Amino acid sequence: MGKKIDGRIPQNSGDGAGFKQYNAVQSPWNKLMSYQDALHYASRFESVLSAAVAQAYRIIIPDYATRASEMCKEAYGRLLYTGMNYPNDDGFGIHPFMCGSYPGALIGDKGDDALLMCGRCQDFGTYRCEKELDVCDWDICGSELCRATTMSLQGQADATASRHRKGHKLDYMMVEAKGCGDRHCRIIAENREKYPAPDHELWESFGPAVSDDYKKYTEEEDCVSESMMFREECNYRFVNGTNNETDSSNQMVNLSTAASLYLLPAIDNAVKLEYTTAENAEWIKRCVLEAAGKAMFGERYAIKACREWLGVPDSIGEDGRVLGGVIEMLLQSLVCGYEIEAFNKDEVIYVINRGDLAITGTQSLCEAHLYMWNGMVKTLVNAMWSVWEEDSPKGKMRIKIGKKIDKFM
Amino acid sequence: MNKNIFAHDEWKRSEHMAVRECVGYYLFTHQIMEVTGPDACRFLDYMYPNNIASLAVGRDRYTTMLNDDGEIIDDVVIMRLEEDKYWVSTLYGTQADDWFYFHSEDYDVDASEITDEWHMFAVQGPKSKDVMNSILEGNVDDLKFFMHKWDKLGEAEVLVNRGGFTGEKFGYEVYCNADDADAVQDAIDAAVKAAGGKEVTEFQVFAWTLPTEAGFYYMRDLGHTNPFEVGLEKNINWDKDFVGKAALEKVRENGPAREMVGFEVCDECEDFYITSKQYGGPGEPVYIDGEEIGRVSKLVYSYVKNVNNGYILAKKDELHIGDKIKIHGYDCVITEKKWL
């Protein structure tokens, strides 16, 4: 097979026609998707991948309490370390007089908006903070993740407190969670001197809040579906109460995922703690992620919708280029660098920058994508096709979409 | 659900009222930009719209900082410590640092952030003068408003500034070296408690409820406004050049498009749901005849008047004192922007 790149419509096709240029990602067939849609697409796709990784983690540690506990401890410790060693008070609008762990709420608030988890801060004070989310793309990953994200916030908050003069500690709790079926996610942080409650384990930071009476519940008609950075009434900027302000221009490159930030590190930690071996963990991830990929296009209507979405011409039948289009849209949406080595009816080869795809430095996220893509191609194209890594240069992941026969597949 | 986070909170009330009726203190360290050099005065006079050149050594001045569009990007207190040495007290140090850098090319001036070297304790309230005189080697008897002086507190050299963010007639800010902060706090704490006061620990009290009663602003209130819209145009020195002047002159000529007004949520609406910009986000919209004419900038509580009070940034001349309006279905009334 030759490394032929089939005639693709040049990406600059139409230059000089007088059309306005705008920010978008572009399919191999020049179907454009706006920056905003691309961000939503990437966020949700990564969430689906993360949900599959969560299932792998559930297989590795079957007991809920043990699993949630280990995940919370790992997330708390890692984010405490990150917060201690890479402080960014100015970046979150944390002032020098803000002592104690309540400024951690500013970190969570900004992070939520960047991750498209839109909602509102309902209370922000030394002894009590409350944040309510109307949307969470991670709501399909399981309640262990809800617990772990809360504990990562606790870690960040405690790290912030350690850099300031002594203040009051807050106990961050998730008292409602979309991942548990609630209308909102709601984090309430309370100081136990003012709002006494019995001690609890890290993983049990799940409410109810002592100050439940103060809860501000946003009714359905007032809920929002976009982050501040995409809303006109917010002047298309995230702004918190300390006037910390950002627009959407750097959100794609900062997109973190549940898999990269919580679930894959939790699995690595489970291996370290000898709940399973590294080989078995990898095998379980592969099995689950391939199955998840296959499930994405198990119905014909999903294939038709995908082709329509990508603008695949009718002249292109069942071949690897269709999955190539999906992969390219995702990589562009994640601002992940890649080169096209081959793109034809027989094979598609991409050389992907590992560093870009390993979001938040989680290297195993590259393999997680590969497993998922290998599952996806089986239903989006057909079972003759596979996706595998081959002859990768250093720092790259060279993936091939091609036909493959393997009697032990 | 929706229980008022201020009205029912006796903890906040007691800290707030300690300042109003006795004395309260709190850590209130801001970021400090130290500006020195032969052109320090000329530079700051260009960076800020109010008159900095006329500021005497030992005195302070409040001023906004503007961008080229005449929008407020910071509000600060500038202290002239020496002939060519100023401290700029800000909560936007990173931005000020950049803004200074980009405008300093033609000036023989050095600006650096010294926040980590200092802490500041605010001592505020009717008995604050007595408290200060009981702990300082010298006294503050002759210290007028927005005047500062060096003194000794125990072994520590401290800079005492008369001023604050509470609207109290007597209020002081004690700047001390970071290494001396524990000892200085211990001394202030003991003296304040001996006077019947207490430490103010709640952010919402020292950043929101106390200043709002006095009609003061906290950062987000001023975001994307100009001085004419928020009533801070009075001390602008139009006889000099300053950043944002050209844009602001147009506002002066045409009049501001918006204005900040005060409002209260009526008594019977003790517990309510109204969002405000102080928590981030756009704030609750305010409608008149179906048209959005403003947004709620701030909504807190006056423990002196026992009312839910705040600010609305509204289209100019749409709201007048005494107007009764509904916000998110709750009865509200437009008021002066001061509750003391």
Contiguous helical run count of chain A? 12
- In whole angstroms, how far apart are the ends of chain B? 30 Å
Low-pLDDT runs of chain B: none
Q: How widely separated are the two ends of chain A?
A: 22 Å
Question: Mean pLDDT of chain B, nearest integer?
Answer: 96
Secondary structure: helix percent of chain A:
40-55%
Largest sheet of chain A: 4 strands, antiparallel
Radius of gyration of chain B: 21 Å
Domain count of chain A, please report it. Answer: 2
- Strand proportion of chain A, as a percent range, falls in 5-15%
Order of helices and strands of chain A: EEHHHHEEHEEEEHHHHHEEHHEE
Question: Main beta sheet of chain B, described?
Answer: 6 strands, mixed
Question: Which value, in Å, is the CA radius of gyration of chain A?
Answer: 23 Å
Given as residue ranges, the uncertain stretches of chain A (5+ residues, pLDDT < 50) are none
Q: How would you classify the quaternary structure?
A: heterodimer
